[in-house]
Amino acid sequence: MLTLKIRLINCPACKREISSQAVSCPHCGQPVNSNYISQANPSVSPYRITPTQEITYPNQIGIYTPGQIAWATFLGSALGGGILIAINYKRLNKDDQIAKAIVLIVLGFVILLIASAVWAASPIIVSGSQAAIMYFLAGNWQGKDITEHINLGGKVASSWGATGAGLIGAVAAIMLLAFFGILGIMS
Ligand SMILES: [Zn+2]
41 CA to middle of ligand 1, Å? Predict the structure, then answer.
């Protein structure tokens, strides 16, 4: 994974922690001369640079927003959105959380099957409901990290990626429904 070492410095105006790469403070808007900081000798810099706060931050890679996750879920049910939640956790270096996304995908598919078979609900209504739930969960689980990523100068992932994940989910959902539909006819 492509990562970039980013130093945290204190904003000269509001004193809150910001990335040394930031053009301006995301908290108060204070413009920050990043060239000056990177070239300056830390010992004479007016900005307090604390090497112990150095973190590896994946700001070069895109993170999916809750809106993109909801869009992928609408297109491709829980698999579409779940893929993006898993990718986000991977890119945020939170591999231990990926299991949550997998549980969500499996649960989403079970609900999709039950809704289609038992309640004969329209897949569009099921996908819409799942998209709303996924939007809420993504915001709860990753909203803080996503905001922090963007504030530190990180990118938002491409909407084409979100659409692609949605289409993969859609194909998987259609195949799964067809598979269980065939079983239903045979029994
Ligand atoms: Zn500030």
Answer: 21
